[in-house]
Specification:
- One of its GO terms (molecular function) is DNA binding.
- InterPro entries: Cro/C1-type_HTH (IPR001387), Lambda_DNA-bd_dom_sf (IPR010982).
- This is Helix-turn-helix domain-containing protein.
- It comes from Kibdelosporangium aridum.
- There is one protein chain.
- Strands 1, 2, 3, 7, 8, 9, 10, 11 and 12 form a 9-stranded mixed beta sheet that branches. This protein has a 3-stranded antiparallel beta sheet with strand order 4-5-6, with no helix packed on it.
- Helices cover about 30% and strands about 20% of the residues.
- A hairpin with a 2-residue loop joins strand 10 (about 325-335) and strand 11.
- By secondary structure, the protein is α+β, with helices and mostly antiparallel strands.
- About 30% of the residues are buried.
- The chain has helices at about 5-20, 30-35, 45-50, 60-70, 90-110, 145-150, 170-185, 220-225, 295-300, 310-320; strands spanning about 140, 190-195, 205-210, 230-235, 245-250, 250-255, 260, 265-280, 280-290, 325-335, 340, 350-355.
């Protein structure tokens, strides 16, 4: 094998980070495996060794861990060593992480052209992110529009001959977009959509997909209280309030709010995307797509349904969060001429916050 072999270059760089990155502080494979495992279930030392001896190429999410770990001395301030969340890094540390991440991903891309396994990365489902790979039930849950918004509207009055049930749904554009896509990529699954008040007991233990935020969708509000997430949606107190998403940081909190122009027109919403285990059934998932306004919810949905963007956004999710038990993204959703534009998550300015739950 030639000295400039791409697999050798990646292996040498990973070993150098561990042994030489901080002068006078050599880190053992055991210590690194322990840190990457979050102190609960360390990676195997043989796995770290395989990456440093060219017998395997680490998956992208492990290189993310390398970049985060070696971006700050705070990783080794306590014993056992620890892996901070990207959101816990300072601006300077984040810049160091980004540069190291870029370097490692370039080395990995070159090494991946050589024959050999890329370990610790499960295959992506053939139907993309919204393919659930089983024949279980999927339930899309929308909020029901408040009665004061429906008053006097005959199409939303069950006693009227003109009654149409869908007129009572909030986030109807997001529902139509997502329902068709999920049906397409899950032809063997039963896919239902309901408003939150229509749910029955068995619905809670299916794969849940929640549309809309805490203002009207009480199931979104309930589930967000049940997960340990550093993101909180601040409900709008009235029509003049724009609310926002509050992120808990080491040194306090930061609010990400929508933007309106001088005429009160929405020009940028904030959307939240969350995927994790269903707290009512650990063998099923819960996915939340919500925004401060309906166009934020639609933008988050379209990030993984829009044929022009879904592949690149799915690749981003696979590289950053693959195999994480739970993760979330806060994203900007641009609004032009009243239309929500699909966010491109490969652009750093589009993502305002990212979080992932360490593996148990």
């Amino acid at each position: 094998m030639l000295p400039d072999d791409p697999r050798r270059a990646l292996a040498r760089r990973l070993r150098a980070l561990r042994e030489e990155h901080w002068p006078g502080l050599g880190i053992t494979q055991h210590q690194l495996a322990e840190a990457f495992g979050g102190g609960r279930r360390p990676l195997s030392i043989s796995l770290i060794s395989s990456w440093e001896n060219m017998t395997a190429i680490p998956p992208a999410r492990r290189l993310e861990a390398y970049a985060t770990f070696f971006a700050t001395m705070r990783s080794v301030e306590t014993n056992p060593y620890r892996l901070l969340l990207p959101s816990q890094l300072t601006e300077d540390e984040r810049a160091t992480r980004d540069a190291l991440r870029h370097e490692l991903f370039m080395l990995r891309d070159r090494a991946a052209t050589e024959p050999g396994p890329i370990t610790d990365a499960p295959p992506r489902p053939p139907g993309g992110f919204w393919h659930f790979n089983d024949e279980n039930i999927i339930t899309i849950v929308c909020a029901q529009l408040p009665q004061d918004l429906l008053a006097g509207f005959s199409y939303a009055d069950p006693t009227s001959p003109d009654y149409v049930a869908l007129y009572t749904y909030a986030d109807l554009d997001a529902l139509i977009e997502l329902y068709g896509h999920i049906r397409m990529v899950n032809p063997n699954n039963q896919v239902y959509f309901k408003t939150a008040p229509e749910l029955v007991t068995d619905d809670y233990t299916s794969h849940l997909v929640l549309l809309g935020g805490v203002d009207w969708n009480f199931l979104t509000r309930d589930l967000l209280k049940r997960v340990e997430l550093p993101v909180r949606q601040v409900a709008r107190a009235d029509e003049q309030d724009i609310g926002g998403f509050e992120v808990r940081l080491d040194n306090g909190t930061k609010l990400f709010a929508p933007q309106l122009d001088r005429d009160g027109q929405l020009v940028e919403d904030v959307g939240h995307f969350y995927r994790g285990r269903n707290p009512f059934n650990a063998k099923r998932t819960v996915t939340i797509c919500n925004g401060m306004y309906g166009r934020g919810t639609l933008g988050v949905v379209r990030a993984l349904t829009d044929a022009r963007f879904r592949n690149r956004n799915e690749t981003f999710l696979a590289r950053h969060f693959d195999n994480a038990p739970a993760f979330s993204i806060l994203t900007r959703v641009e609004v032009v001429m009243g239309q929500a534009l699909t966010p491109d998550w490969t652009q750093p300015d589009t993502r305002v916050h990212e979080w992932l739950e360490p593996e148990a």
